[in-house]
Design brief:
245 residues, 11 helices
Length: 245
């Protein structure tokens, strides 16, 4: 059913895109590229790399908090399968309700403060929240899960607009596709496997927290090097990434 629904959305989106009127203000002065992928790697490979690093905390945090967590609760905490499933559904609602609020907040105070709070919070709270996940009391366990959901919302409520604002117009779609999807596929996709591996090798049930901390530290460093972009026009041809980053 999810794939059938996705197919329907894809067809509807294709129809909208084919009949969409191009923004002449954005397109004016930007020649169409015959090979946008080649141009992206030739001129914006640093931007792609920075987007991957910027999204590290989101990719690792999402796959850890919403994908691997059910396995962790069953295999490490030995909680019956039905309870993690119920809590994950609750966490999805927390995430979905907070994302638009966080996005609106970033329109008023800027992208950087929110992203710094997301990455810094994940670095400082990853171990305490994992400790709460490992605590035998289900109420404390749920608080830990909600903590991860809130930190994820701080990131995902801001990062879509931030990434768009960081990339030059002429190769925006290609650079965003490469930077975002490469990070999610590699860093996020490997997270559950690495989490299991770290526990197996270290015999320490809280070791996945250090994966989150490493990803958060990487993203935090990149965010510090960004210029604030929430007041910059999207038609700006220059990348808003700081040259010193």
């Amino acid at each position: 059913m999810p794939f059938l629904i996705g197919l329907t959305i894809g067809i509807f989106g294709l129809y909208i895109r084919r009949h969409l009127i191009e923004n002449e203000v954005i397109e004016r002065g930007h020649a169409h590229l015959t090979s946008p992928v080649r141009e992206a790697f030739r001129t914006e490979w640093r931007t792609i790399a920075r987007l991957i690093a910027l999204g590290a905390v989101g990719a690792v945090g999402f796959y850890m908090s919403f994908v691997y967590i059910t396995t962790y609760l069953r295999q490490v905490d030995h909680i019956t399968q039905s309870k993690p499933s119920i809590s994950i559904r609750f966490l999805w609602w927390v995430l979905l309700l907070l994302i638009p609020v966080v996005g609106k907040l970033s329109d008023h105070i800027g992208r950087k403060p929110v992203l710094l709070a997301a990455a810094g919070g994940m670095f400082l709270l990853a171990w305490p929240l994992f400790w709460m996940l490992h605590y035998p009391d289900l109420a404390v366990n749920l608080i830990g899960q909600v903590g991860f959901a809130v930190l994820s919302a701080l990131f995902w409520g801001v990062i879509p607009a931030t990434m768009v604002e960081l990339v030059p117009v002429r190769v925006r779609c290609t650079v965003l596709s490469l930077g975002y999807n490469a990070g999610m596929a590699v860093l996020g996709g490997l997270t559950p496997m690495l989490a299991v591996y770290t526990i197996t090798r270290s015999h320490y049930d809280l070791s996945p927290a250090f994966l989150l901390m490493a990803a958060a530290a990487l993203s935090f460093v990149v965010v510090i090097g960004l210029r604030e972009t929430y007041k910059m026009p999207l038609v700006s041809p220059a990348s808003a990434l700081a040259d010193a980053a």
